[in-house]
Amino acid sequence: MRKKSITVLTQRRNKVKDMNLIELEKIEKALRADEITYEEAGEKIYGSTTKPWQTEYWKKKRKELIKETCEQCDSTKQPMVLQHMWQPPTYKNRVRKIYAAFLENEKIKDNIPAVNDSEIQSYLDQFTDLKEACPSCQMRSLSKRKTMKPTYRCVKCNHEFDEPKMVPYHPKLGVAPSFEQVKQGMANRRLQDYIWEVYGDEIKKRAILKGIEDHKRYMSMEDTKTFCKRCAFLWDKKRKKVCDVCKDTLIPIEMHACYKCQKDGHPGVL
């Protein structure tokens, strides 16, 4: 059994090792034609621990693009690295963005589910305890003072008062929300469930397709520059670079020139 699982894992890694732009386009075409599912497409692309830069395609492409001089500081000290100036978003972030578009579209169509008053009241009936809270923000973050007046101060909003407000409370759910808050919350949850039930597969399919587009762009290395190791470290870890003008002073990567060079007439921001 273990020998079989090792064989399957090796085959999976070999598939990814041979992954190139042509293979990605084949997967994209098959997914758009519904010849494979989004799960199968995702497995082909992301189902291995082998990284893109470990593939033969990547190594060959790198040799074509890498230069002898750092494009940041003009250093010629080897070795040089290919620095990616753009990184693809994660699959989860793509899903969130596409889901948000579907959610907004349903709100525009006014497809917000109705919630009965009896359902709201049934939820609020769970809040049977009474607890002290701030009269202003109704939070229970109170600080009682022994000598100063007023006696209480709210840690949350800094409101000062002598008598706290008694609010409905549930040991697990906390302070009771308002009727409208419960109504809105229930409607939003039902709308979310509706979107995932009706459009869930479409959302994930679109996320995979967008992921393929991003993956092709990343593998094409069109967003790369040649950096020395020092500049790559500063960019990735410190979010800094050398001034584009004097090639000396360190500045945030969003800037173009250091303050001294700006005084000489160079713009400060990209």
Keywords:
270 residues; alpha+beta; 3-stranded antiparallel sheet; 10 strands; 9 helices
Explain what the structure shows:
A three-stranded antiparallel sheet has the order 2-6-7, with no helix packed on it. Strands 3-4-5 form a three-stranded antiparallel sheet, with no helix packed on it. It has a two-stranded antiparallel ribbon with strand order 1-8. Helix 2 crosses helix 7. The chain is an alpha+beta fold and 270 residues long. The protein is built from nine helices and ten strands. The chain is flat. It has helices at residues 2-17, 21-32, 38-46, 56-65, 91-108, 117-124, 179-220, 229-238, 259-263, and strands at residues 80-84, 129-133, 142-144, 152-154, 160-161, 165-170, 174-175, 224-228, 240-242, 250-252.
How would the blueprint of this fold be written?
Layout: H1 2-17, H2 21-32, H3 38-46, H4 56-65, E1 80-84, H5 91-108, H6 117-124, E2 129-133, E3 142-144, E4 152-154, E5 160-161, E6 165-170, E7 174-175, H7 179-220, E8 224-228, H8 229-238, E9 240-242, E10 250-252, H9 259-263
Antiparallel strand pairs: 1-8, 2-6, 3-4, 4-5, 6-7, 9-10
Round the Cα radius of gyration to an integer and report it: 29 Å
Q: How far is the first residue's CA from the last residue's CA?
A: 57 Å
**How many strands, which pairing sense, and closed or not: the largest β-sheet?**
3 strands, antiparallel
| Order of adjacent strands in the largest pleated sheet | 2-6-7
Give a brief outline of the structure.
This protein has 270 residues and is α+β, with helices and mostly antiparallel strands. It is built from 9 helices and 10 strands.
